[in-house]
Amino acid sequence: MQQKKITLLLLPIVLFSCTQGESTDNSNTTGPDAIVYKMPEESAPHEGTWLQWPHQYQYGMTYRNRLDATWVAMTKELAQSEKVHIIAYDGVEKERIEGLLNNAGVSLSNINFKLYPTDDVWVRDNGPIYVKDKNGQLFIQDWGFNGWGNKADFNNCNTIPSKIAADNGTPKVNLNAVMINEGGSVEIDGNGVLMACKSSILNTNRNPGMTQQQAEAIFTKNLGITKFIWLEGKAGLDITDMHIDGFARFVNSSTIITMNSNDLAYWQVPDNDIDKLYSATGKNGTTYQFVKIPLTRNDVMTTYGKNVGRASYINYYIANNRVLVPNYNDPNDVVANQIIQQLYPDKTVVGIDCRNLFANGGMVHCVTQQQPR
Questions:
Q1: Would you list the domain boundaries of the chain?
Q2: pLDDT, tens digit, 9 for 90 and up, residues 200-234
Q3: Where are the strands (E) in the chain, listed by range?
């Protein structure tokens, strides 16, 4: 495959107007008076990061063993940035994890363990969503989680936010009966704008009968959203029904990081969605700057020899003084890391080997969840 020269691109965007009520095809504004809680953006200061450690009880020892190294690498970096809250399946697993970290030279002084049974590792989707009210008090929102539309076991993972809230004495907002919503389904810019694919929210396997207006009202009240960028997405493409955080993220309130159109097409983002994404505007119709990161140059090969296709770097995680970027033993690792480093000059970009994790459908952002200060 011919290598394309990749540069950091800042592209002008077409302006469009938005109307109140039922949105146009990709954007809508909602009144701020309805806001009860606001979700701090990922780059806001953290108290810590939550991880759910891989275990053998759901998919076996081979699954666990292939992923351990990625969790060790993430923990090593995050522990130099903030608290690391590790959810271990049980006491036996906690001891095993401590041994892995000790062998890797990772100090346990900044690590906190919770013993909760889990079904899998995707804490971004099933874990606590931290928000603040108008007085700045921190709350845990417990949104409904049903295994991405009943495609996987979820009963253990669905209890995680409630358990954390009870153990830590954090007030909880119970949204289980209000909406099924995974953290990877929504991107927020810290300025009241949300970006999402309808396919992973307004889907009969999550929220049957829910209208776009109803979803927007829920997000306005609970996340502090006053404008929406809706893409259609593609239901049935993968287990998530196309989460936005695999291919488009907010760097900040003025910048979106994504891919070029050819790579988005490889990612199977519908053509109309590509156009909508590139023409999206922020609050008050302001234009976004766009930064475009290539996919891997080559197909990714896992450590056990499986070809899992080309992979995305967009699914990175922003910690206090680190940015963890998925890497794949590919020539474009250095390209992606350098571009992302330019975007976060006050943090250290660290590549995390995600070859085996990508084989299971996710990358760094999918398995981390921030707890704001």
A1: 27-372
A2: 999 999 999 999 999 999 999 999 999 999 999 99
A3: 27-29, 46-52, 83-88, 111-115, 129-132, 138-144, 172-180, 186-188, 193-197, 227-231, 249-252, 255-258, 289-292, 317-318, 322-327, 348-353, 369-372
Q: Are 42 and 257 in contact (CB under 8 A)?
A: no
Pairing verdict, β 227-231 and 249-252: unpaired
- Residue 117's identity, in one-letter code, is P
Average pLDDT of 341-367? 98
CA separation for the pair 244, 361 (Å, rounded): 14
Cα separation values, 125 from 77, 158, 281, 290, 308, Å: 22, 9, 26, 26, 22
Q: Is the pLDDT of residue 12 over 70?
A: no
Which of 164, 208, 173, 202 is closest to 185 using CA atoms?
202
Reported as a pLDDT band with limits 50, 70 and 90, residue 31 is confident
Give strand ranges (E) for 210-346: 227-231, 249-252, 255-258, 289-292, 317-318, 322-327
pLDDT of residue 32: 75
Q: Whole-prediction pTM value?
A: 0.91
Of 3.40.50.280, 3.75.10.10, 3.40.50.150, 3.40.50.10070, the CATH number of 27-372 is 3.75.10.10
Token pair belonging to 264:
């988005």
Which pLDDT belongs to residue 190? 87
User: Is the pLDDT assigned to residue 78 strictly greater than 50?
Assistant: yes
What does the chain come to in residues? 373
- Strand-pairing partners, residue 113, are 86
Residue 214 structure tokens: 């109803």
State the CB neighbour count (10 A cutoff) for residue 162: 15
Please state whether beta strands 255-258 and 249-252 pair in parallel, antiparallel, or not at all (unpaired).
antiparallel
According to DSSP, the residues that pair with 114 across neighbouring strands are 87
Question: How many C-beta neighbours within 10 Å does residue 296 have?
Answer: 24
